[in-house]
Structures are given as structure tokens and as C-alpha cells.
Amino acid sequence: MSRRPRKVCFVTIGATAPFDVLLSNVLNKSFLEALQQHEYTTLVIQYGKEGRAVFDKFTKKHAPGSPERCGLDIQGFGFKQDGLLREMRLTKSDDKLDSLEGMILSHAGSGSIMEALRIGVPLVVVPNPALQDNHQEELAREIEKNGWAVTGRLDNLAQSVEKAEDLRRAARSWPPVNSGETKYKRGLAGVMEDEMGFVD
């Protein structure tokens, strides 16, 4: 039996404010089944300041290979002084490593979002409703409106896997997302004419 190409979902809960409800939903069977359905092989979780107990409880209760892991290699860590760029890059496709493009699921912290957007893979942003003076909902709505990411809902996190796949398809479509109503109306020929300076 041939080995499936690696496809990574990287989840960041954040390093400062606890977001255990997101972590619990990421480890929920419905979310893991959604990843399996879309051919993910690996789930890497940055579980944050206080999430280790939740992560350890799941991994001790459900050993590698158990049905509750839905065929996924599940890994986790708390905090890295040098940032999350290395883990985020695991989600990029790489022919040499036999890996397909995956996705990043992030809490709605602006630093994590900016770093994830630079990677260029589908991004799901999940606001933390427990934060006071919460600007995260507004930030998540704005980046979704612009087609840069999709907003995930805690009560239906599995759906965000499908939304990430839709975002991937939209990013590969023509005309490009955010191209404006008429900018690419004439297709590739129009773009070439504009770039080369041709006029009608």
C-alpha cells in the first residue's frame, strides 16, 4: 500500500490568553473526521499557555492508531521563543517532501494572522468570545470580507475545514480574488495588455 502525501493542519491557540474551548473543539471527533475526509495526515497544535492539560488528556486517553484520532498523526507543543514560522511552513506544498498544501487554523490574534497570511495557505480565524473588549470578531469579519481568510465558529469547527477548501479553490480561480469588478474582465489577454502597456 502506497503512503499518502503529507497534508498538515497547523493550529495555533495563542501564547498568552487561554483558549481551551478552541483546543477542545480541535480535538473533537467531528473536526478530526473533517480533516480525515479532506485527506489530512497530520495535525500540529500549538496549545498555548494553559492548554497542555487538555492536550495531554486527549493523547493519553487515545493512543496513536486509535479510532478517535481518525488516522491523524497528532502533535502538540506549548510555546516557542522563536515563533511559529517553522510550523506554519509545514502547511505549504513541497514536491520534494511529498506534501500537499494544508491549512492554518488560528485564534484571532493580529500577530498570528499576519504571520499566517504571509505563508499563503488557506487560513481559518476563530475569535475568542471570552476576551473583554473583543476586537477579534471585527478583525475576523473584515479579513473574511476581503477574501483573505475564513471565520471559524466554535460550535461548528468541522465546517471550517470545508470553508478552507473553498478558500483554496477561490484563490486558484480566475479572475483572482480581490481583482476588482472590472480589472480582469478581459481575462489573461487583458492583464497582459495592461502590463505591457498596450492600449485599444
Automatic annotation (TrEMBL):
Tell me, which GO biological process terms does this entry list? dolichol-linked oligosaccharide biosynthetic process
What Pfam families does the record tag this protein with? Answer: Glyco_tran_28_C
Q: Which InterPro entries match?
A: Glyco_trans_28_C, UDP-GlcNAc_transferase
Q: Domain (Glycosyl transferase family 28 C-terminal): give its ranges.
A: 8-157
> What is the catalytic activity of this protein?
an N-acetyl-alpha-D-glucosaminyl-diphospho-di-trans,poly-cis-dolichol + UDP-N-acetyl-alpha-D-glucosamine = an N,N'-diacetylchitobiosyl-diphospho-di-trans,poly-cis-dolichol + UDP + H(+)
Question: What is a GO molecular function of this protein?
Answer: N-acetylglucosaminyldiphosphodolichol N-acetylglucosaminyltransferase activity
GO cellular component terms, alphabetically, are: UDP-N-acetylglucosamine transferase complex
Q: What is its main location?
A: endoplasmic reticulum
What EC number(s) does its UniProt record assign?
2.4.1.141
The answer to whether keyword Ion transport applies is no
> Where is this gene product found?
Endoplasmic reticulum
Superkingdom of the source species: Eukaryota
Keyword field: Endoplasmic reticulum, Glycosyltransferase, Transferase
Which residues does UniProt assign to the signal peptide? none
PANTHER family, sorted: UDP-N-ACETYLGLUCOSAMINE TRANSFERASE SUBUNIT ALG13
Report the sequence similarity comment from the record. Answer: Belongs to the glycosyltransferase 28 family.
Its assembly, as annotated, is:
Heterodimer with ALG14 to form a functional enzyme.
Q: What does this protein do?
A: Involved in protein N-glycosylation. Essential for the second step of the dolichol-linked oligosaccharide pathway.
What this protein is called in its record is UDP-N-acetylglucosamine transferase subunit ALG13
What organism is listed for this UniProt entry?
A: Talaromyces proteolyticus
By which gene is this protein encoded? ALG13
